[in-house]
Design a protein that fits this description.
The chain is of the alpha/beta class. It folds into two domains: about 1-10 and about 390-499, Sandwich (Immunoglobulin-like); about 15-385, TIM Barrel, CATH 3.20.20. It has helices spanning about 50-60, 105-115, 130-145, 150-155, 185-195, 220-225, 265-290, 325-340, 375-380, and strands at about 1-15, 20-25, 45, 50, 65, 90-95, 100, 120-125, 165-170, 205-215, 240-250, 300-305, 345-350, 360-365, 370, 390-395, 400, 405, 410-415, 420-425, 435-440, 450-455, 470-475, 475-480, 485-490, 490-499. It has a ten-stranded mixed sheet, covered by helices on one side. Strands 2-5-8-9-10-11-12-13 form an eight-stranded parallel beta barrel, surrounded by five helices. A two-stranded antiparallel ribbon has the order 3-4. Helix 6 runs parallel beside helix 7, helix 7 packs parallel to helix 8 (about 325-340) and helix 8 runs parallel beside helix 9 (about 375-380). The chain is globular, with a radius of gyration of 22 Å. It binds alpha-L-arabinofuranose. Alpha-L-arabinofuranose (AHR) binds next to loops. Alpha-L-arabinofuranose binds near residues 71 and 358.
Length: about 500
């Protein structure tokens, strides 16, 4: 029997809703086909956006969407993507399959997509191959309300009112595809570029995100912060509001990542162990950030995370299309629990990527659409958005094979403004259920509602069988005088809401 002790009297930091954010790049079939089909498509759409996909995204309360990349961002010239579509410049998408990008989805379309979803906007600027002027003018085009060359151009292109840009990324992966820079070089470029990202809206400032490290490159974090350090007093809103971190979970290595659907128990545990490594990374980078920013004014922004496998056989290798199983559900559950636990520093995270690319929440094929196991996890966890983390501890035992051992259970707990407590619990064991007793400090349990996602580790949804893995009601619990008790099945994600 595992005891889950919750101290509901000890509210910790608020879980920023943006931790449940997403990422959409001009890559494969994410934007085109996945989100945007154009006004003339036979697929039901509103202003070109797929109605079925938008509806599904609203159900998981997508809080923020990052665009246009990724590596694509540092090759993207925003002026190519505005104005009459037939006149828009075509370009080669050099990173992703070498296909022709016709720029029919640009700034206006992205803003329209976010309007339909009802989410905040995170635009990633081009520092790698773009100019300071280009970046500055993009912000003016989007956010300036009065009379100016860029605001006038926006109006000519049919949008009278300025938009709100909530977050702006000053380059992406500038240690790699975004210019192969050294940390000191990038940090100096960041200082320069960010100067010209003006705040035209006093009540809605643009939060600036600095490019952070890849995985465990602590040297990058240290040097970037050191080089920008004399701005410490300005580590207030408006200089650096966030520092990014990218980490992907690969069961194998970059040459042979492993199949999305065909794996054994050994690979199951190895993947989950690698997902848990996110906790080590956040602690490591936080320790450096704490030295330069002890008041935690700079948010850690994990704006790319998720599983990365070999592409589905027969699909374009440059399109990164992969299936999504119960293993992905567990990776999502664990990772979101880690983010919740670090909500004092992690202020945003963006799963890569929204539709048809890497660990997507939705897959499409023509007019067909399927929600992945990862989608259901985001649906279950949405109650944590803007809630307060609660202190919790769970007894665990090690499960796994050989060197790949993981704790069998992993949890996070929050309370919202209405006093409803949400427990998200993962059973990482491929085979063994576990008896759990939830114990509160003082709370007398009232209403309990629970849902579960469970199955065999390789279970997944297909276009032919869309409901093999779906969130189901879970009623097999007992209310005790201290809390609740139940048995959590092997390989599952459980969500309990207690009033
Ligand atoms: O998400 C796919 C790619 O992974 C992104 O374009 C890049 O930033 C990262 O390397």
């Amino acid at each position: 029997m595992a005891k889950l002790v919750i101290n509901e009297c000890k509210r910790k930091d608020r879980i920023n809703a943006e931790i449940y954010g997403h990422f959409s790049e001009h890559l494969g079939r994410c934007i085109y086909e996945g989100l945007y089909v154009g006004e003339n498509s036979e697929i039901k759409n509103t202003n070109g956006m797929r109605d079925d996909v938008v509806e599904a995204l609203k159900e998981i309360k997508v809080p923020v969407l990052r665009w246009p990349g990724g590596c694509f961002a540092d090759e993207y010239h925003w002026k190519d993507g505005i104005g009459p579509k037939e006149k828009r410049k075509k370009m080669i998408n050099t990173h992703w399959g070498g296909v022709v990008e016709d720029n029919s989805f640009g700034t206006h379309e992205f803003m329209e997509l976010c309007r339909q979803i009802g989410c905040k906007t995170y635009i990633n600027g081009n520092l790698g191959s773009g100019t300071v002027q280009e970046m500055s003018e993009w912000v003016e085009y989007m956010t300036f309300e009065g009379v100016s060359p860029m605001a006038d151009l926006r109006k000519e292109n049919g949008h009278e009112q300025s938009w709100r840009v909530d977050y702006f990324g000053v380059g992406n992966e500038n240690w790699g595809c975004g210019g192969n820079m050294t940390p000191v070089h990038y940090a100096n470029e960041f200082r320069r570029y960010q100067t010209y990202i003006r705040n035209y809206k006093a009540d809605a400032p643009v939060a600036k995100i600095c490019c952070g490290a890849n995985v465990d490159d602590y040297h990058w974090t240290e040097d970037v912060l050191k080089t920008t350090h004399d701005h410490t007093p300005k580590y207030l809103h408006g200089f650096m509001d966030g520092l990014s971190l990218h980490y992907y979970t690969l069961p194998g290595n970059w040459d042979s990542k492993g199949s999305a659907t065909d794996f054994d128990e050994e690979v199951w545990y190895r993947t989950l162990k690698k997902a848990l490594y996110m906790d080590t990374l956040i602690k490591g980078h936080s320790a450096i950030m704490n030295q330069y920013d002890p008041d935690k004014k700079i948010g850690m922004i994990v704006d790319e995370w998720g599983c990365w496998y070999d592409v589905e056989p027969g699909t374009n290798p440059g399109f990164l299309f992969q299936q999504n199983t119960m293993r992905d559900a567990l990776v999502a559950g664990i990772t979101l629990n880690i983010f919740n636990k670090h909500c004092d520093r992690v202020k945003m995270a963006n799963l890569a990527q929204l539709v048809n690319v890497l660990q997507s929440v939705i897959l499409t094929e023509g007019e067909k659409m399927v929600k992945t196991p990862t989608y259901h996890v985001f649906h279950m966890y949405k109650e944590h958005q803007n809630a307060y983390l609660l202190e919790s501890h769970i007894d665990t035992k090690e499960v796994g094979i050989g060197e790949d051992k993981v704790p069998n259970l992993y949890e996070s707990v929050s309370v919202n403004d209405q006093g409803i407590i949400t427990i998200s619990l993962n059973n990482l064991s491929a085979n063994d259920a576990e008896e759990v007793e939830v114990v509160f400090a003082e709370k007398v349990v009232g209403d309990v509602k629970a849902t579960i996602l469970s199955g065999d580790m390789k279970d997944h949804n297909t276009f032919e069988n869309t409901d093999r893995v779906i969130e189901k009601d879970f009623t097999d619990f007992k209310v005790t005088n201290k809390g609740v008790s139940f048995v959590i099945p092997a390989c599952s994600v459980l969500n309990i809401r207690i009033n």
